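Risk register update: the risk of archive-format incompatibility is retired. Evidence:
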Amino acid sequence: MKPVRYKRVLLKLSGEVLAGDQGFGITPPVIGGVAEQIREIVGLGVRVGVVIGGGNIFRGLAASHLGMDRATGDYMGMLATVMNGMALQDCLEKIGVPTRVMSALTVTEVAEPYIRRRAIRHLEKGRVVILAGGTGNPFFTTDTAASLRAVEIGAEVIMKATKVDGVYTADPEKDATAQLLPTVSYKDVLTRGLKIMDATAISLCMENNLPILVFKMGDRDQLRRALVGEPVGTLVGSDAE
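Archived output:
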């Protein structure tokens, strides 16, 4: 088997990935498949941190457009990420993968408080660390939380799992001529308005030279294939310039 390219990764899952085709909530076969893929790469010796969005349950920004206070909506969205994190923890531990859920919000009955040094220690012991609650602050996305946590825990790459198989020159659902980009630079993402992550998240990655791999999570072995260097998705980084 090929050696893995990265020994410590931050896996960013959108809430929508967990919803599957139903578009809302958590689909057990889907989250079970995600857990199996994580177990596979843990078996390869990879240390894994996970940040999950909450869009399958609640979106603070969408609620604010309907008249809800933005900060309140964002806090509700952060709580949704805790629920997703607990669901993933349950799936992982049922298949023998040790985990810890750490939250930027104080919910000590169901998750440890996020402490950077403790998170790193959990990783060193081979536990999957599920980082919930976003950054703990409103007005920041879970993409920004993923970038921040990845830098803090010393991840070598952010693996952003989405419903599409990479970054295209245009929306492939609207433009039949759209082409998949195997690589793209941070600057191109910002200047061309490519919707990979928000500008704050991209800028943080650029400042810390942290690559981002955008790929589709659907296939059962996509995560392993990406980690052993097979051509999967789109790699965002400074070397792509």
